[in-house]
Amino acid sequence: MGLTDRKEKGAVVAVDGPAASGKGTIARALAAHFGLPHMDTGLLYRAVALNLWRWGGDPASEFEALRAADMLSIDPADEELRSEPVSRIASSVSAYPSVRTALLKRQQDFAGQPGGAVLDGRDIGTVIAPSADVKLFVTASPEVRAQRRVRELLERGMPAHYEDVLADIRSRDARDTARAVAPLKPAPDAIILDTSNLDRDAAIAEAIRVVKERLGAKNR
Ligand code: CDP
Question: Average pLDDT of the chain?
Answer without folding.
Answer: 92
